[in-house]
Every structure is written in C-alpha cells, then in structure tokens.
Amino acid sequence: MVNIIIETSKYLMILLIACYTFFNFRFFSFPDLERKRIVCSRQNQAMFLIHLLAYLIIYLKTEDERVLAFYGAQVVFFLAYIYLYRLLYRNVSRLLVNNACMLMCVGFIMLTRISFDRAVRQFIIVAAAAAVTWIIPYIMDHVWQLCQGAWVYAGIGLALLAVVCIVGTTTFGAQLSLEIGGVTFQPSEFVKITFVFFVAAMFYQSTDFKTVVVTTAVAAAHILILAASRDLGSALLLFVTYLFMLFIATSNWLYLGSGLLAGVGAASIAYLVFPHVQTRVAAWADPWSDIDNKGYQITQSLFAIGTGGWFGMGLYQGMPYKIPVVEKDFIFAAISEEMGGIFALCVLLICVGCFLQFMMIAGNLQAAFFKLIAFGLGIVYITQVFLTVGGVTKFIPSTGVTLPFVSYGGSSILSTFILFNIIQGLYILKRNEEEEYEEG
C-alpha cells in the first residue's frame, strides 16, 4: 500500500511542480496586478500540496512522529513568511517570495529524506535568516548613502577573504571557512554581495578609463586572494559577475573581449598551478577511467540522474547517500534520482524565473547604482545556479558551489536571503515611486 502511495504521489508532485512552473512564466504575461495575484495564489496552492505529499511519504517510510512536528513547523514558517512579507511591504514582489519558498520547500524535502538532523538545523538557520533579513527592503528604501561606500565594500570584502586565506579551515583542498565561537561560516558567500556593491558604486561615480582600471585592479585582488585560497568556484563567480557588470556599465565590447581572453588565460594558469584543479578537470574529462577514486563523485551523480529518468524512483526508492556531499554541491542529482528529471528541470526553470524577475527589475530602475546592483546580483545568482547544475551533470568541472535556497549550508542560506531581499527592496522602492507619481 505504501509503495502505491509513493508511486501515485510521485506523479502528482511532478504535475504540481509543472503547474507551478507554468504559472511562474505565465505571471510575466499579465499586465494587471489582480491577475498576477491570482497566479501567485495558485502557485502557493501547488507548493503546499507538493509539501504535504512529500512529507506524507516521508512519514509513511520512517514512521517517525518527529516528521509530523517538523512538517507543521515548516507550514507555519511558510505561511508566516508569505503573509507577513505582504503585511510589512505592500508592494512586495509576490513571485520572488513564492519562488524562494518553493526552492526552500524542495530543499527541506530532500534534506529530510537524506538526514533529518541536518534538515532541522537547516530549518533553524532559515527561520533565523528570514527574520534578520526582513529589514533589508526597509533599509534599501530609506538609506540613500549606499552609493558612497565603494571603498568600505571593497575593504570589508578584501579583509574577509584575506583572513580566510591566512587562517581559514581547509575543506576538499580549498580554504573556505572561518570558525568563531564554535560557529563556522563561509565569508565568500557574503563577499559576493559586497563585491557587487563595490563595483556598482564605482561605476555609478564614473565609467572613464581611470575608474575602470582602478575597479578592475580591486576586482582582480578579490579574485587573486580567492585563487590563493584555492576557492576557485567563488573566484570564477566573481570574475563572471565583474565582466558582465563592466560591460553593462560601459557597453564596451573591447572590455568584454579582453576580459574573456584574460579569463581563459587565468583558467589555464590555475590548471597548471593547482593540483586539485587538475584532479577535478581529469574527473570531468574522463570519470570512468578512475571510477573508484577521482571520478567517484561525478559518476555516482550521473548514475543517480540516469537511474531516476524523467519520472524518478520516488522518495526513499533511490540511493542519494552514495554521492559524496550530496546535501550540498550535488543535491540536484538527488532531486533528479528520486523526484525525476522533469521535477529537477522544473526546479531549474524556477531559478531561471527568479533571474528573469531580477533582470526585469533592473531594467525598470532609473538610478544607475540600483540598476547595476540588481543586474550584478542577478548575474551572481544565475551563475551560481549554472555552476552547480553544470557540475552535477558533467557539463563543466565541479566547482563546489551550492544551489541557492536548496542546498544545505548556513552561509549559503543567509547570503541568498540577503540577495533576494536586496532585490525585493529595489522592487518595492520602484513600485512606491510609481504610486507616488500616479497620485501626484
């Protein structure tokens, strides 16, 4: 009987997330707010049904009463997050709130299936991060001196990266984290935000050649420190972000072409200098030749994706625990194995929907500083998604980057909340200005 419920629920969840994803893109076609609100309400219904079905299966398979309490706590959190956000900010982007909740919902489901204790820890971090970052849209709307702190942003970012490079904890060959009072966090997750603010503030002041040179030098310093820490995933993320922010600010194709050539050269040097980069590239190029060692992680990921097929094995029917650090870098493979390729593709399309919303917000903003921030954070977000999914599917070498809102990790969760709330703040700011103009 349980197996029948699992099999039936699997198809229902695929149908529901397909509907959710359809509404995600249908939202953009409606000009009036009322129809957009209806679409967002339907998204909420689909999300809560997926959540209910998934935790019903988890309870039936584990018979652990803690699962029921955990499910209830999540329902309360999602309802509070959705409706309190609307209460606090009248002009909030409901689509971004819904997508954030949907991605967190998928993350909670998979983490609970993989490790209940880690799922609970993740939930506590999510609840705390949500409460702390709710104030960010208010700050974006009321603090006008943000564009004047370019060197403050640069100083904070470089200082944090330098400390990690010197005394950071090494994980999988890279110095990534700091431990303070028993709490471990990854500074590069937050530096990517200060980095965007630094670049936006510099190009807001001027885009002349001198400013470009100075900004490029400071951006290169960020990337070089990350390279010295062997955190090449974050280094690549900052490089791509800076290159596109430079192009958007200047519309100079020469800068874009020169940057791409410099990136190819830097990647070649990194390959020659860092043994762990050579290992990852070798594992990517031919994982089957060393399947028990260098290629183990990627081959297990490919096995999981292939086994799941389009419709998945069903929750608790696969073996995601065979993939090393599956709850972090490779959670997309776990989703593909048990929830199915269609479900995983819908998760990816939801991320793309978030990116499109970021770009639309950036395009509607008048202030150059805010426009660059929205664009830069959008590039950070979609590049991180690409690096994660690309590494899991063997499209590119693994970079150790997490999937925002889905993967396990406190620093990743908090930085993603900050990123989304900054974008929300810019959206709310624009909508408030439009309302004042209409009333005037």
Topology, element by element:
Layout (H helix, E strand, L loop, with lengths): L1 H25 L6 H30 L2 H24 L5 H21 L1 H18 L2 H7 L7 H18 L1 E3 L2 E7 L2 E3 L2 H18 L3 H20 L3 H19 L2 H21 L1 H11 L10 H13 L22 H8 L2 H24 L3 H25 L17 H30 L1
Helix pairs in contact: 1-2, 1-15, 2-3, 2-4, 3-4, 3-5, 4-5, 4-15, 5-17, 6-17, 7-8, 7-9, 8-9, 8-10, 8-16, 9-10, 10-11, 10-16, 11-12, 13-14, 14-15, 15-16, 16-17
Low-confidence stretches: none
Main sheet record: 3 strands, antiparallel
Please tally the β strands and state the result. 3
**% residues in beta strands:** under 5%
> Terminal Cα separation, in Å?
64 Å
Instruction: Please give the share of residues in helix.
Output: over 70%
Query: What strand order characterises the main sheet?
Result: 1-2-3
SSE ordering? HHHHHHHEEEHHHHHHHHHH
Helical stretch tally: 17
Radius of gyration: 22 Å
Rough outline: globular
Coarse structural class: mainly alpha
Q: Overall pLDDT, averaged?
A: 88
Q: Could you give a quick summary of the protein structure above?
A:
Helix content is 75%, strand content 3%. The protein has helices at 2-26, 33-62, 65-88, 94-114, 116-133, 136-142, 150-167, 188-205, 209-228, 232-250, 253-273, 275-285, 296-308, 331-338, 341-364, 368-392, 410-439, and strands spanning 169-171, 174-180, 183-185.
